[in-house]
Amino acid sequence: MANKSDFIGSLAKGLKVIEAFNAEHARLSIADVAEATGFDRATSRRCLLTLHELGYAAYDGKFFTLTPRVLRLGMGALASLPLAQVVQPWLDQLSDRIGQSTSVSILDGTEIVYLARAAQRRVMSIGLMPGSRLPAHCTSMGRVLLAALPEEEARALIDTSDLTPRTVQSVTEPERIMERLAAARTDGYAVIDQEVEVGLRSIAVPLYNAHGHVVAALNTGVAAVQSEASDLAALYLEPLKRVQDGLRRVLR
Amino acid sequence: MANKSDFIGSLAKGLKVIEAFNAEHARLSIADVAEATGFDRATSRRCLLTLHELGYAAYDGKFFTLTPRVLRLGMGALASLPLAQVVQPWLDQLSDRIGQSTSVSILDGTEIVYLARAAQRRVMSIGLMPGSRLPAHCTSMGRVLLAALPEEEARALIDTSDLTPRTVQSVTEPERIMERLAAARTDGYAVIDQEVEVGLRSIAVPLYNAHGHVVAALNTGVAAVQSEASDLAALYLEPLKRVQDGLRRVLR
DNA sequence: ATTTTTCTGTTCGCATGGCGAACAAATCCG
DNA sequence: CGGATTTGTTCGCCATGCGAACAGAAAAAT
């Protein structure tokens, strides 16, 4: 930004207030928002009242919750990503053929964002839908996306990730994660075994565009009771690579 | 809002700029945004540059597109709706049993917003995901949700709806739509036959909470080549009502 | 290739919007 | 019931955000 005077502080504050709401904090008071954002209580209050006035938040006299109207804010981004529309039929077909859930995601900072999904039976307790996020370092799709970056860039992202273990199997040492990325780079795919959630294993491959650049990741996830980690490549790598090859001609 | 001075105009402007992006207008210039929002060009420019600075928009030197980060703005709303989490397993089961896609949505103004979905084979060309919207007046779920409102309230929403026909079968006269709502009220369900999209028929029922209030709608959609509209009730009403009954005890 | 039109970047003066402190009242909690 | 916490409100202040105006760049038309 050329000039500091091109920046609108009030808008920035309001967006930070919206981001203060999440699954764990769905219903917040003025004091809650002031604490979560670090803004003055009166500032937080004006932001919340503005959101309420515009229909983005409901207010019961003390607590605020976001309303479905805020979904309009995000739809512009999903809509502007042609990738999701293009890959959906491929995911549906792949999911039908292999009998497992499949997804496509992209990297956004230290997280992956789901763009498209074809779901079979639920194997994860958290519902994953376009827009959902998971940490990149401990997901198969995240690992192939990080592996596609220059090594220093990947390391910087790992260093700023929240490496808090999510299961007892979570890999949390940066050096070991970098090793897994190197392996993913060499193998052309990544497998995770109950690192992001107990009971879930998944395998992912990168998706390339016609120029050979990695633009997304494709995975399938299976219940741990259903397949050993060591079997995932034998079972699913070939169909995933077939979709990878098919999409390479289509994506730009 | 008690005081006009509790309203933050700059925040309101910025949110309107974000909403200017949609599927048809995914990539906008400063002039485009000024035109779409009615704001001064310099104001539009500052909003866009602020969104870019915060990571919500990408900028190529002339055009802006929203980035996946704006999805964080909407996720707080979905997360704060326990309804989506509660109904998902019921949708998955129902979808498996009847072999068709099923969805749950709520009313937001003149539109329905999808909260949850269990998809089988794609019958619609537009991908519907949580957060997607369709006009209420010409969808089966929209009709049962409008039918649950006091009649004057429903009429006011019909009067402010965009009644542009989407297919040759679209019902667009307010009186005829009100008749369809009355029928839905009497029957306890609604069927639409290719009004929202050629090739799609669907049937929906309202979802009640333990207090008997309508809180959402549940539907299944089928390809027109697969079932006649007159057969939908015979084929699917019973399983839909079974889920309706089951959820009545669970929803609050 | 040139001219015209449209768009963007930038500056700047101005008005007021948004800020936060302070106080009173309401609510919550022990 | 008293103390602690939170919310509503007012208000003075000043920095923020606005929009006009101008120059330059880019795009479109000739």
UniProtKB/TrEMBL annotation, chains A, B:
Can you give the residue ranges of the HTH iclR-type domain?
Answer: 8-68
The answer to keyword DNA-binding applying to this record is yes
Q: Which UniProt keywords apply?
A: DNA-binding, Transcription, Transcription regulation
Where does the IclR-ED domain start and stop, copy by copy? 69-252
Protein name according to UniProt: Helix-turn-helix domain-containing protein
